[in-house]
Amino acid sequence: MSYEPVVAIAGVTGAVGAEFIATMDRRAFPVRKLKALASARSAGKTIDFRGERIVIEELTEKSFEGVDIALFSAGSGTSRKFSPAAVKAGAVVIDNSSAFRMDPNVPLVIPEINAGRIREHKGIIAVPNCSAITALVPLWPIHKANRIKRVILSTYQAASGGGAAVMQELVESTRAHLEGRAFQPKAIPHPYAFNLFSHNTAVDPETGYNDEETKVIKETRKIFEDERIAIGVTCVRVPVLRAHSEAITFECERPITEHDVRAILANAPGVKIVDDRAKNYFPMPIDASGQDDVLVGRIRRDLSDASGHSISMFVSADQLLKGAALNAIQIAELAQRERPWFRGRLRPKLTSCRHRTLPYDNAIHPIHSRWQQ
Ligand code: A2P
């Protein structure tokens, strides 16, 4: 009999919460029982899951009795407050927030890059920032072939990154604008309709970088296990509903051509090339929405680097899917397949599972190869 975990979703009423459910369904993720958790505001409401009506419960420290996998997407404060109780109850927490990403004891996982790190978890596995995931899925196979020493990227981030309330604000403020009505911003600090603005996270007064930019820099170094990679990043929120786009320029250690990049990305997991110069057709958020892959196009030589070491490209990816829910469910699939060791109280010493391989292991950096010995 195949093993079916009990799954809890903390933040089930949110934008990512809804995608956790849709993604589990689409990928036929086995679930013995689903616990739907949100704030007291939502307690008693219901959601439908696989033909069953499930009553939403208030998230408390007692919510995790008998839970195998706890998917969190209810903000970093909520993750910090309730994850320890989930781990104590024996669940593996897959956390979509920034709460634990830089904790050295917490694997920060993009399955196409470092699936093997899942095996090191001590109860919590973190999903990286959505802008980092969008850039790193296509950059990783290039980095493996020809080390990337410097990246400059600018984001065009969708409303979904701020959650359901920000998506709603984009729709409502656009409607008000078109109808000539005044609209007072509520979820974000600036007018959103027909506007864009520097990312609405706090700005460090000394460096001038906002939190989103700092996350991209730090998380890239942790996931690539390369502290030397130089990164310049500008994060901007644009009036798009749910897919992020990014203009990326990178410089490699050795010369690289656009043909090299196309050849590398042609077979890269999680990447789809959309690069039609004749039709001027390139990645767009409207095409990326609802897709699992990161769309990559406008692959061309960076003319500002005469040495031939640099390439520019443009990418789009669904922030709610690969940037959040899909990445989390991919982690859950790997953890579930690796049973029985994945669950906190059942986990044996790491040495006993070194011979095992995970489905994405061929994408793993040589530094992870000790897991394959
Ligand atoms: P609720 O709908 O009850 O407020 P989004 O990322 O789309 O903004 O969604 C945030 C999710 O996190 C929602 O499901 C929200 O539930 C949930 N949430 C926010 N604060 C808490 C909290 N203190 N405890 C539990 N869930 C919370």
Name a few traits of the molecule:
373 residues, alpha/beta, Rossmann fold, Dihydrodipicolinate Reductase, domain 2, 2 domains, 6-stranded mixed sheet, 9 helices, 28% helix, globular, disordered C terminus, binds adenosine-2'-5'-diphosphate
Account of the 3D structure:
The protein is of the alpha/beta class and 373 residues long. It folds into two domains: 6-129 and 323-371, Rossmann fold; 131-318, Dihydrodipicolinate Reductase, domain 2, CATH 3.30.360.10. Helix content is 28%, strand content 21%. The chain contains nine helices and 16 strands. Strands 5-2-1-6-7-8 form a six-stranded parallel beta sheet, sandwiched between helices. It has a six-stranded mixed beta sheet with strand order 11-9-13-16-15-14. Helix 3 links the parallel strand 7 and strand 8. Helix 1 crosses helix 9 (321-337) and helix 4 (130-145) runs parallel beside helix 6. The two termini are 30 Å apart. Mean pLDDT is 92; it is low at 345-357 and 361-373. The site of adenosine-2'-5'-diphosphate (A2P) has 18 residues, from helix 1 and helix 5.
State the gist of this model:
This protein has 373 residues and is an alpha/beta fold.
What's the layout of helices and strands?
Blueprint: E1 6-10, H1 15-26, E2 33-38, E3 46-49, E4 52-55, E5 57-58, E6 69-72, H2 76-88, E7 92-95, H3 111-114, E8 124-126, H4 130-145, E9 148-156, H5 164-178, E10 197-198, H6 211-224, E11 230-234, E12 236-237, E13 243-252, H7 258-266, E14 271-273, H8 285-288, E15 294-301, E16 310-318, H9 321-337
Parallel strand pairs: 1-2, 1-6, 2-5, 6-7, 7-8, 9-11, 14-15
Antiparallel strand pairs: 3-4, 9-13, 10-12, 13-16, 15-16
Helix pairs in contact: 1-9, 4-6
Bound molecules: adenosine-2'-5'-diphosphate.
Adenosine-2'-5'-diphosphate binds at residues 11-17, 38-39, 41-42, 59, 74-75, 78, 163-165.
